[in-house]
Specification:
2 strands; 75% helix; 291 residues; mainly alpha; globular
Length: 291
């Protein structure tokens, strides 16, 4: 029983931290080249979940998993091209206000289109059931979610650190003037990062849709947790974000095993302690590049 009491919140914490990480990675990717702290990132997550419900009826779970993140990524590109750049040229603070406004518009738009009543997505029949891990009976779908998060994070790291695309992105984050002097336009790379950041949030929405309550304001809790992760780990640092996300997720689930209210409060308490004793972040200096 003692092992079960420890293993279940640990697995839940790893899963929770993994999806906090996916959202926080999207925030960091968009910030890396665009310099925008995107408060609409949670809205992309909610849109992905609603698209999952809508598309699953016609395309099935696999179809919605393939199509919804692409659509959300294209939405991210459209916002970056049509709005972010225009507002950023006028005043660097305006994109922050813009993304806050877009998050509100997205919530109201979802409410108008789908109503305020919560929705539920259907879990794929092939991924249903449970897996016995010793004394712990754990949802098979949650195990798949955890594995999917590991794959997504690994592929993102490989893209940023092991490809020519990633080398340009990291160089552009450090010294965009030098990259421009070499004749490399960063505009398509900004578009790609906007698509990737938004698409990751949309993917999280699709994958989590069968196990969460889908409602217009669903992005608020996950976005708040992603910002806690960013405060602890720092924007622009891949492995610090990973460590911070897992720490927040595990701390939250162990606290929630005592009482649900403690789980919600634990991550803010953790952030407060970090700001009090380590104002530059739990892991020291903020990174200057996505490395």
């Amino acid at each position: 029983m003692q092992i079960a009491a420890f293993l279940e919140p640990l697995l839940n914490g790893l899963l929770t931290g993994a999806y906090y990480l996916v959202i926080a990675l999207g925030l960091s990717l968009i910030f890396t080249l665009g310099g925008v702290v995107n408060l609409a990132q949670g809205a992309f997550y909610a849109i992905g979940a609603y698209l999952a419900v809508t598309l699953s009826a016609q395309l099935g779970f696999a179809g919605s998993l393939a199509v919804a993140p692409v659509l959300v990524g294209l939405l991210g590109v459209a916002i970056e091209r049509l709005l972010h750049l225009r507002f950023q040229r006028a005043d660097p603070i305006l994109p922050l206000l813009l993304t806050f406004g877009l998050a509100m518009v997205a919530e109201l738009g979802l409410r108008a289109a789908f109503g305020a009543a919560p929705l539920a997505d259907t879990m794929p029949a092939a991924l249903g059931g449970n897996i016995a891990l010793g004394d712990v009976v754990y949802s098979a779908y949650r195990v798949v979610l955890l594995a999917a998060a590991v794959v997504v994070v690994t592929l993102t790291w490989l893209l940023i650190h092991r490809t020519p695309f990633g080398r340009v992105v990291r160089a552009g984050a450090q010294n965009p003037e030098m990259v421009g002097a070499l004749g490399i336009s960063l505009a398509p790379y900004r578009m790609a990062m906007a698509a990737l950041g938004a698409g990751l949030a949309g993917l999280a929405g699709v994958l989590l849709a069968p196990i969460v309550t889908i409602h217009p304001a669903m992005e608020l809790n996950l976005l708040a947790a992603a910002f806690v992760v960013v405060v602890i780990g720092g924007l622009g640092s891949f492995w610090r974000l990973v460590a911070a996300a897992l720490l927040v997720g595990i701390a939250r689930e162990f606290a929630a095993s005592i009482t649900p209210a403690a789980g919600e409060a634990s991550m803010y308490l953790l952030m407060g302690l970090v700001l009090l004793f380590r104002p530059r972040g739990l892991f020291g200096e903020r990174a200057l590049r996505f490395g």
